[in-house]
Amino acid sequence: MEERQDHATRTISIVMIIALVGKVLGLYRDHLLAVYYGTGMAANAFNTASRIPRVFFDAVFASAISACFIPVFSEYLTRNGKKEAFRFGSNFLSVMALLTAVLTVLGILFARPLVTLFADGYDPQTAELAASLTRVMFPTVLFTGVAFSFVGILQAMDRFNVPALISTVSNLVIIGYFFFLDERFGVYGLAAAYLLGWLLQAVVQAPSLRRLDFRYRPDFSFRSEGMRKAFALMGPVMISTWVQPINLTINTKFGSRLY
Q1: Cβ contact 166:132 at 8 Å
Q2: Nearest-angstrom CA–CA distance, 170 and 140
């Protein structure tokens, strides 16, 4: 018991340190954005374009994945064993990837109306730039859905260090872009760097999943027992977490009307 407590203490300490490093890097990333782009047209357009996919993902998928997937996966792991739990994990991952891919396509197609909805105070030039950047960045919804699903599997298997590391990885990519590539590629390159950062959040977790013998097998069944349980939990969780994305939408809308 004492050995388990020591292991838990070490794990919590490492996760806290990694999370703190990620937050500090996030602040430094935002600092560099202000240094390189200030408060001009490019900065306003980029901030809006980066928020739109985040709002949709937070409102629909983020808490649903973290609060609904892990309990069902853990139940499968306890009652049916690792093989069945991993089968449900593949099923959930496939469904989330499909849903986020559909949302991504819709976001790209309707980027201009979404910018108008979120920031109706922009002049036409800023609004058009924001729409273009939104089209570039909307696939972050798909990458985030996959990354969060991986996080759920690893955390349910008591692996916490790598999931805590993912924000550090993406922030380092963006910080590196500012120093080495921003002068050449500008704000569109920055949008691509954000996209790459979110993709790497999924990629860096793949080796840990392989060490756990997780092998992804496509399964797009919406009516499996595990998915029915997950969907039953999703409704109340989604509604309870809508406050933050709605607040972010309102703030962006009012902010677009300021000089």
Answers
A1: no
A2: 12
